[in-house]
Amino acid sequence: MEYLPPVGWGDVATRHDLDHLTVATHRDLEGVELGLKSQIAEVRAELKTDIRELRTELKSDIGDLRTELKTDIGDLRTELKSDIGDLRTELGDFRTEMKVDMALLRAGLSDDLRSQTWRMTTMLTGAIVAMAGLVVAAPHF
Questions:
Q1: Nearest to 17 by CA among 25, 27, 8, 7
Q2: How far apart are the first and last CA of the chain?
Q3: Backbone dihedral angles phi then psi of residue 139, each to the nearest 5 degrees
Q4: Which domain holds residue 26?
Q5: What rounded mean pLDDT belongs to the chain?
Q6: Whole-angstrom Cα distance, residue 99 to residue 105?
């Protein structure tokens, strides 16, 4: 006791004081616990609301993307059909031109062949006549 600081008996804590502080501390902790539980419940409710809003927004965005994709795919399909139609037309025109060119080439080759045949026939006829003249004019051996 002699090592204790000089205080009066009014400053000494009794068991009753400690019990009272224990009860008060428990009440304070219970109040803090209730406050924390309340704040956690509020945060949980806010998170649920935010998640619902995000889910709704995401569904809407996905719907918008689907609509845009359908439109874009439809546009591409139309453009592709148009391009294929243009190619068919161009190929048809090219085929027609090739037929005309082939017919002209055939006609030209046919004319050239007749002309060459006529020349060859004329030359052979001239050669045969010349040889016949040589045979008639040549003395008989």
A1: 25
A2: 179
A3: -65, 150
A4: 15-136
A5: 90
A6: 10
